[in-house]
């Protein structure tokens, strides 16, 4: 089984590329989704976060208050490191479990969407890495628009990850998502064709 890691920085277009890949029928493990699984009520990820940060990170219904944790995490490297130390091993375990299931099912080509791949590399396997890229000015603009953030909030989220300009230099493949969606999808088609031949 060949595993392609899809990464990028916040709002550069990983989910857009991942959605297209799923539409093509390929299996995809999304660590943003798995990160939600490990903080469901009853899961040890949530219990450990509450133990460390207190019940103020919970909503009245007992679910994680994502906005509250996001406010604490983005822009505070110490909190970010603590949250990562609690959640990343649990997320990595879920990825391993997912990969084992896909391998057993005989899938030849699978994808893993890992936003923080280069920040947490040791935890996540992959045969090649695609970086979904847009210039930073466009990343900022799309992030502000999608999440309804102020420019300062958006910049603080961008600063909590490695710069996309750095990540692009590490990539095996750069998917340039600064043009139309059609142009992005075409690059994905070309790369899948390359892998399959
Ligand atoms: C802080 C949380 C609650 C904010 O939730 P929210 O719903 O607002 O955002 P969402 O989960 O959709 O993430 C949006 C994007 O933020 C960025 N991001 C998320 N977590 C982190 C982090 N620890 N460090 C840097 N950037 C991050 C990623 O680019 C991600 O795609 C949530 O992101 C979280 O639990 N993060 C810790 C787990 C993690 O590292 N997830 C990333 C996948 S490994
Ligand atoms: N080629 C494009 N043209 C115009 N808008 C786009 C394009 N690609 C993505 N977008 C928009 O930019 C925003 C960010 O894209 P997306 O959500 O795919 O990024 P992401 O990398 O998955 O972000 P995150 O790290 O936060 O999960 C979204 O609102 C999306 O609709």
Model description:
It contains 9 helices and 5 strands. Helices cover 54% and strands 13% of the residues. The longest helix has 28 residues, at 77-104. Helix 1 (14-23) packs across helix 9 and helix 2 packs across helix 5. The protein starts with a strand and ends with a helix. It has 197 residues and is α/β, with parallel strands linked by helices. Strands 2-3-1-4-5 form a 5-stranded parallel beta sheet, sandwiched between helices. It has a single domain (2-196), classed as P-loop containing nucleotide triphosphate hydrolases (Rossmann fold, 3-Layer(aba) Sandwich). The structure holds dephospho coenzyme A (COD) and adenosine-5'-triphosphate (ATP). Dephospho coenzyme A binds next to helix 2, helix 4 and helix 5. Pfam families: CoaE.
Strand order of the largest sheet: 2-3-1-4-5
Give the CATH level 1 class.
Alpha Beta
Portion of residues in beta strands equals 5-15%
Overall, the morphology is: globular
Total number of strands: 5
What level of helicity do the residues show?
40-55%
Distance between the termini: 15 Å
Tell me the series of helices and strands, N- to C-terminal: EHEHHHHEEHHHEH
CATH fold description: Rossmann fold
How many helices does DSSP assign? 9
CATH architecture: 3-Layer(aba) Sandwich
The CATH homologous superfamily: P-loop containing nucleotide triphosphate hydrolases
Radius of gyration: 17 Å
């Amino acid at each position: 089984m060949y595993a392609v890691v899809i990464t990028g920085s916040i709002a550069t277009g990983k989910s857009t590329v991942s959605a297209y890949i799923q539409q093509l029928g390929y299996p995809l493990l999304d660590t943003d989704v798995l990160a939600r699984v490990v903080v469901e009520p009853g899961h040890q990820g949530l219990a450990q976060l509450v133990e460390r940060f207190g019940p103020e990170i919970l909503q009245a219904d007992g679910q994680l208050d994502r906005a509250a944790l996001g406010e604490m995490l983005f822009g505070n490297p110490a909190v970010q490191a603590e949250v990562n130390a609690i959640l990343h091993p649990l997320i990595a375990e879920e990825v391993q479990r997912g990969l084992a299931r896909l391998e057993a099912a005989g899938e030849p080509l699978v994808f893993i969407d890992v936003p923080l791949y280069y920040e947490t590399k040791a935890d996540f396997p992959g045969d090649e890495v695609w970086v979904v890229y847009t210039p930073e000015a466009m990343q900022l603009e799309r992030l502000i628009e999608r999440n309804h953030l102020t420019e300062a909030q958006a910049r603080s989220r961008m600063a909590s990850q490695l710069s996309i300009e750095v990540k692009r230099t590490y990539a095996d493949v750069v998917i340039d998502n600064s043009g139309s969606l059609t142009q992005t999808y075409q690059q994905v088609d070309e790369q899948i064709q390359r892998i399959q031949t």
